[in-house]
Structure formats: C-alpha cells, structure tokens
Description:
This protein is of the alpha/beta class and 258 residues long. It has helices spanning 25-60, 111-121, 197-203, and strands at residues 100-102, 126-130, 144-149, 156-158, 163-169, 210-214, 228-234, 246-252. The strands form three sheets. It has a three-stranded mixed β-sheet, covered by helices on one side. The longest helix is centred in the N-terminal third of the chain and has 36 residues, at 25-60.
Amino acid sequence: MSYNQQPSVQPPFGGPMAGQGGKPGWARKRIVVPAAILIFFVGVGIGTSGTSGQEKVGAGSDVKPRPTVTVTKTAVAKVAKDEAGEQASDSKPVTDEVKKAAVPDFVGMGLQSAQDHAQKVGFHKLTSHDALGRDRMQAFDRNWKVCSQNVKAGAVKSTDTELDFGAVKLAEACPAKDEVPPKAQGGKMPAFAGKSVKAARAALDSGTSITVQDALPDDRWILVESNWKVCTQTPAAGASLNGQPVEFTAVKFEESCP
C-alpha cells in the first residue's frame, strides 16, 4: 500500500438531486409562497363576503326589522255595588273624634300648678296675662297665682280649646275684675293716669316718640316700666294723636303721685 496516494475529494452535499426522490430548494419555494398567498386572499374574501352580507341585510335587503309595539292597558276600576244596586264607595268616612273634657276650677291655684293640672286633664293650649293690666310677663309661673279664667269651671269643652289665666303675683290681691290695658281708639289720646308705663307705651303707635321722667325729685331711671305708673301725660287724654311726641311722669306702683 502506497502512503503517497491522495484521498479522493467528496463534493459538498447540495441536497437531494432531481430525479433522486427530492426537489431543489427553489422549486419548494415556488410551491409554498403561492399557496400562502392563496390562503390569505381566500380569508379576505370570506370576511368581505360576510360583511357585505350584513350590509345588504341592514341597508338594501328587503328584510325589514320588526317594529316594537308597546301595548298600554288602561285599568278600569270596578265599581262595587251593594245589594240595592247602588254604587258603594270603597273609601271609609274619615271621622276625627273630638275629645272633650270638663274645665276644672283653677282660681286660687298657683299658675304653674294650674297649668300642670290643665295638661293632665287634656288641655294643652294654655296662656296667661297680667290681671292688673300692667302688661307684665309671667316669667316664673310659680311666683304667680290665678285670679280668673276665660272658660267657666265645669263647662265641657273640646281639649283643643285655649285656656287663658288672669294672674297676679303671690303677694298681690286679685282685682274684682281683670283690668284691661288701655288702647288708643279713634286717633285719640287715652287716659293713662294710674296705668303702667309699659301698658301706656304698648297702647301707642310703635313709632311714637315717648319720654318718661320720674315724677319725684329723685330723678331715678325708669328701667322696668311695668313697675311704674303714669302720673301725668302730655298731650292730655282725648287730644288728637297726629304723630306728636308724648311725655309721661311716673312713680313706682307702691308710691303716690305728687
């Protein structure tokens, strides 16, 4: 064996040869690429056909959507009739039961006790006033006593009736009859002598200019006008009121006018 003999050179493998059971690479590309293009256009055609079909049905097709019909049913009330054939009403008559009670005798009671007793009986609309006509407020009911009542004791009245008590302070005597505060009537100046300054002021127009001075030489301030009584007045009682200023002199109720 000769070691100088060169080995035969094998040609590089280039894939199966034509005629040997295979195809060249360029031939396979010619088949694969057209097939992919064909599949693409088939898919696009199918999609376009479906969309076109929907457009035809929505726009140009003779098939029209069915209209929606709303049926409104009017309820007819059945009128019930009684045995005589007359119409019977389903509504029951509404009756407000009026509660009544006998009005107790409140005279002589403390104002607070009288109010409590009235509420216990069923009367809740309660008010009170100064029985001496001085226009004082009953700020502390326990300091006042009842002298009169607007509804006679024993009268049977609706519990919605308002009860009004005439009262004086505990240390004061009840008048034989409630004194009515003065009122300016017919444009004339009332007689205010002996009346409280507060009641006199309330009787005049709210825009009236009023000056009140101590009738005694002490020149005291008149703060709580319901505790002071009128001694003199200008203009005099019976004079026409035409907006002129009014002047009073006054002393405390326990004092005498000079």
